[in-house]
Amino acid sequence: MTKLDYKLLALDLDGTLIDDSLVITEPTKKAIAQAIERGVVVTLATGRMFRSALIFARELNLAAPLICYQGAMVRHSTTGETVFHQSLPFDQARAFIELAQKRNLHVNAYVDDHIYVAEMNEAASYYANLARVPAEVVGNLLNFIDRPEKAPTKLVIVTKEEQTLAVVEEFQATFANSLYVTRSHARFTEAVHPECSKGIALKALAQSLNIPIEQVMAIGDNLNDLPMLETAGLSIAVANAGPVVKATAGYVTQGEVSEGVIEAINRFILGNN
């Protein structure tokens, strides 16, 4: 595999393509545009909802299906066609919410690409501002999610940064194989269907485009990126990634966040050392 052979590039958003400023830098846009000019299909692989990911896809002029909700939804950025969608198992979603309520933890529920919350508090506001999508207050989420047709695509617990890993570990242990629970951000514990992940979605997307997995390059920074990095032909962690992510990646950039993305594109796609 030469450095000019990659045909599909999957980019994580938060902590990889953008930092908390939510700004895609002009050099990053230029590098991605040059990759597209070389014939590379560029997609976003994110825990974000489609409406939120689409804002960034349009800014980058992407014309490909986007991997959203940790792989629980794949929807085309230009046509809006839903390629794949898998909601949480209904009973497990309610059990997740019940446990979060017992722990007095804030939960976001995502139904039909909308965010629903029990109340508007600091956690809800923080997430909505980051997502650039307003949250809708519905009161008790268990009363709102009252039948299988309203099973959410994803559930997110928003905590203080120092709480997140402990929450992830508890909910992973509690739901084991019945839900896929991961950390996507310093403050977010996320749950989707157990058969969904960025890795599964990336493999399916590559197959649909007739691109061998060896010609797929993926860049990420957090625990939710691990399945994607384990799947791609070339896995890259940006310098700000955690130790487990760096240990999994085939290459670790010297630059953090977008600087790392530019470095990887230049080296492995554009052939600039």
Give an overview in words.
Strand 12, helix 8 (226-231) and strand 13 (234-237) form a beta-alpha-beta unit. The strands form three sheets. The chain has a six-stranded mixed sheet with strand order 8-7-6-9-11-10, sandwiched between helices. The chain has 273 residues and is of the alpha/beta class. It is built from ten helices and 14 strands.
Write the layout of secondary structure elements.
Layout (H helix, E strand, L loop, with lengths): L7 E4 L14 H12 L3 E4 L5 H10 L5 E4 L4 E4 L5 E4 L4 H13 L3 E6 L2 E4 L4 H10 L3 E3 L3 H4 L9 E5 L2 H15 L4 E6 L2 E5 L5 H11 L7 E5 L5 H6 L2 E4 L5 H6 L2 E2 L4 H12 L5
Parallel strand pairs: 1-2, 1-12, 7-8, 12-13, 13-14
Antiparallel strand pairs: 3-4, 4-5, 6-7, 6-9, 9-11, 10-11
Give the gist of this structure:
The chain has 273 residues and is of the alpha/beta class.
Kindly report the CATH topology of the largest domain.
Rossmann fold
CA-CA gap between termini: 16 Å
Range of strand content: 15-25%
Task: State the shape.
Answer: globular
How many distinct helices? 10
Mean pLDDT: 96
Summarize the biggest pleated sheet.
Answer: 6 strands, mixed
The helix-and-strand class reads alpha/beta
Unreliable stretches = none
Strand arrangement within the widest β-sheet reads 8-7-6-9-11-10
Radius of gyration: 18 Å
CATH superfamily of the largest domain: HAD superfamily/HAD-like
Query: What count of domains describes the coordinates?
Result: 2
Helix content: 25-40%
CATH class of the largest domain: Alpha Beta
